[in-house]
Fold this sequence. Notes:
- The structure holds two protein chains of two kinds.
- Chain A contains four helices and no strands.
- Chain A is mainly alpha-helical.
- Chain A has one domain.
- The longest helix of chain A is centred in the C-terminal third of the chain and has 48 residues, at about 65-115.
- Chain B has a single domain, classed as Alpha-Beta Complex (Spore Coat Polysaccharide Biosynthesis Protein SpsA, Chain A).
- By secondary structure, chain B is α/β, with parallel strands linked by helices.
- The longest helix of chain B is centred in the middle third of the chain and has 17 residues, at about 120-140.
- Chain B is globular.
- The interface of A and B includes residues 94, 103 and 105 of A.
Amino acid sequence: MLLIFQILFSLFSLTAIAAVIHRKHENLLGIRGALFWIVFWVAADSVVWWPHGATLLANQVGIGRGSDFVVYIALALIFFVLFRLHIKIESMNRDITQIVRQEALDTQKDIVKH
Amino acid sequence: MFLALVPAWNEERRVGETVRQLLLHTDCVVVIDDGSKDHTVERATDAGAIVLSHKLNRGQGAALETGHAYAREINADLILHFDADGQFSVDDIAPAKKFFEARHADILFGSRYLLPTDTVPWQKRQFVHPIAKLIDRLFGAVQLSDVHNGFRLFNRQALNLIHITQDRMAHATEIPALVKHHNLHYVEFPVQVRYDEYGQNARAGFTILKDLFLAPFIK
């Protein structure tokens, strides 16, 4: 049963890595982003194929089970990505405000001219 | 020139009267329509205001900064922040201006808490206001008796130094923080505030906190 999961997960991660490489070639992803995602998927594959490795790592940092360790890391990553997304959205919001503001001021100038 | 800046969002019922009243006390009224879906623009224009229209709703802080940008362009000497919803009384403008000029201040903040009679609902006085005060202190604002009061006067120096980057309600903390940062001379003055259904709920409070927390990370 585990083998089916391992094979399916590996296929999925290979597809994800192929997509990352494709996006890098299309210049939609920077070198740092591409490396991060490749390392991420390789690490995920390692844990899936060698669960004991995660336990060894977990024990190194004082966590009992490997799966707990993986969950903690995943949660921390998700929070970090969410934070980055928030920043990005707020930054875009400010850009939109600048455009809306400039348009409002320009329209007023046009009204005064005519 | 003494300019009143009135941010307005879907205020067709009250903006006309507010503009007419303001024109009796200021040289010019600028309504910043923040993407209203009703007849705010028509009512404000008919009442004699200059209207700057945001095509999209961007929030009160964004609307005020648009007003600031306009005021800088026309070299206004003095500006007044005033709500469109009739919360404030125009009767406070002349005495506030007199006090502001006598004290040679750069910025004046209106305060409900300096009034001789207590008109503030107890929930606000006991719960909302102490939390808001603490937040202001955490984010480096000057200490005010009334932290989220929208009645303000700016002279030209304050207008040129204070650029609001907080689009939503967190500008009410950002402004006193910038006053401290630029070492501007500020005063407080008692003003009336009429309470209807207005005010910030808990969710809005969390949004303010989130905006203030994220601000240093935004380029």
